[in-house]
Amino acid sequence: MKNNITDVYRSTWRFALSCSLLFLIPVAVEFAQHVVEWRAGMYEGIAGAKMAEADPLRLQFGFAKTLALLLPGYWFTRFIIFGGDARRARRLEWPAFGLWLILFALQALQQWWTLFGPALTEAVGLSGQPALWAGYALNLAYFVLSIYLMAWYAAWPAGNMRIGPLASIAIMLGHFWRSVALLIIGALPLMALHYALSFGAIFAPAALDWPLLILDSLVVGLLALTMVGAMTIAARHAARVKGIDLAGTEAGKAA
User: Fold this and answer.
1) What's the pLDDT score for residue 127?
2) Which helix (H) or strand (E) holds 87?
3) Which among 90, 46, 85 is positioned nearest to 72, based on CA atoms?
């Protein structure tokens, strides 16, 4: 486990340095959202933050940010699966890129629905406490399913279409809690720093706003990588335990 945790952060820094333009995609979009928030008065104190929270342009950039967080995933997943080979990771190979686009579209649709779509509980006529608890249950079910689909998310960007959802579930069986722990360790430190910097800009003197927001944008770029890295390395570990190479033709046959 310790080696996997180290690998998440080491791979993140290596990718950020060797594929800097790809790393900067979510950084740039996060910074653009901060500009929109600043113009809406979000960093002028609690009152400004509450007023800017529902700003339509901010919400649109929020959706753009969720997509930007996903964009480096194709290249960073390949970077890990192919052992840190940046040259190979940067290639737009087929069918690998096409397969990843399918995953990207599914994740983008889910993110759009979360931000702008109606609640599923409302669609089935639930309201009040039943709707609240049903919402919690749906979120938990989605989280659990996402853990078991990690091998699928890792295999397709590498071009291995033989590992689909069912094969992914078979690979990840027995590795649920280990994968959850790796995901938390990979995301929580930078997530906490991200919120600390964002809230810090609200309460800090105006002169510190932009240094904090620039630093926060860089943190979000690293967070985008550590989340993907944790999922990919968790899937790689589960596959190796079962003698499966996520990038190879043997993976599909074995699964």
Assistant:
1) 66
2) helix 86-89
3) 90
By CB atoms closer than 10 A (0-12, 13-18, 19+), residue 180 is middle
Taking the C-alpha atoms of residue 91 and residue 88, their distance in angstroms, rounded to an integer, is: 5
pTM over 0.70: yes
Question: Does the structure show a pLDDT above 90 at 252?
Answer: no
Whole-number percent of the chain with pLDDT over 70: 92
| Residue 213 exposed, middle or buried by CB count within 10 Å (0-12, 13-18, 19+) | buried
Contact 78, 100 (CB under 8 A): no
Contact (Cβ atoms closer than 8 angstroms) between residue 254 and residue 243 = yes
For 3-49, the pLDDT digits (tens) are: 999 999 999 999 999 999 999 999 999 999 989 888 877 887 777 77
How many whole angstroms separate alpha carbon 115 and alpha carbon 59?
8
Q: What is the phi/psi pair of residue 12, to 5°?
A: -60, -50
